[in-house]
Amino acid sequence: MTPEVTIIIPLYNKENYILETLQSVSNQTFKNWLCIIIDDGSTDDSFQKANNFIKNDSRFILIRRPDHKVKGASSCRNIGIQLAKSTYIQFLDADDIISEEKIEDQIKLLQNENTFSIAICSWGRFGNEKKFYDNLSSYSDFKLPEDFLISLISSKGYFPIHSYLIHREIIELTGHWNECLKLNDDGEFILRVIANSYNIKFSVKGIAWYRWATDNNLSSFCSKNNVEKAILSWQLIEAQLKIKFEERVDEFIDWNKEQLYKNVKSSYPKLLKKHYFFFIKSIKKDNNLLIFRIINKLEMYKR
C-alpha cells in the first residue's frame, strides 16, 4: 500500500535528540506513513541510534546522503522529496517533535479541500524551558493565503516548518528546497509554497514543538556568509511575493525586512552599505529617528 504521508527528516549530529523525534513519529495516530531519514554525514552516534530505533518498523527508511549531493539539510530534504510517492509531505527536523494527532487531524482537514490547500497547526518551543503559543491571530482558517501572511506579523512572524502538512503537487509546482541558502532556507521554501497555495486550514488538535537553541542550530547569524544568505533569501522571497500578490502583502514584507535590518545592523553592519537599496526604507526610518533624537537634545539644551 502506498503511504499517504511521507515524513522527511534530515539528520546531522543530533544524537541527543533524534530518538525523541522518531518516537513522536512512531506515536502518530495516523498509521499510513513512510518516514525517510537522510543522514548528512553525522560524526556522532546519530546514525547508529536512529538505525537501532527503526530496525523493527519497516515504515522507517534510513539512508546516507550520496557523496555527489550537496551537503546540507535542504539537499537532504530534496532527496526525500525525490523518493516520496505519497500524497502529502511532512517535513520534520531531527530535534523537533509533533503531537500524536497532528498528521491525522490535518489530513482530515485537507481530504475534501483543493489540492493546493495546506494545513497548519499550533506550535510551541521546548528545550531548557517549554512555552506553548496559544491564541495567536494566525490560528485560524484563511480563504486567502495573503491574509495568512498579514496575520503572521502579530503571530511571531512565522510557523516552524513541521507545523505544515503539504500536498506533494504544490511542491512539484513551486520547486524544491534552495540548496544554496544556509539561513532561512525554510522561510524561503515555505513562503513559495504559501504563495502558490489555494487556502489555509488550521488544525486545532495538532501541535508542532520546535526545539530552541540546540548545539548546531543555524537560526542565529553566526557568520557573515550566513547573513548574506539570509539577505538573499529575503530578496528571493520579496520577488516571489511581489509577483504573486503585488502590493497586498507589502506590510508583511516590510515588517520582515525591518527585523532582518535590525539583525544585520547588530551583527554585520557593513553589509547594510552593500545592500543599501534593499534596506533603504529601514535605513531612512533609522536616520529620521536619529535626526529626531538630535533635535530633541538640542531643544533640551536651549531650555
Automatic annotation (TrEMBL):
This is Glycosyl transferase family 2. Gene3D superfamilies: Spore Coat Polysaccharide Biosynthesis Protein SpsA, Chain A (3.90.550.10). It comes from Salegentibacter agarivorans. InterPro entries: Glyco_trans_2-like (IPR001173), Glycosyltransf_2 (IPR050834), Nucleotide-diphossugar_trans (IPR029044). Keywords: Transferase. Pfam families: Glycos_transf_2 (PF00535). Residues 6-143 form the Glycosyltransferase 2-like domain. One of its GO terms (molecular function) is transferase activity.
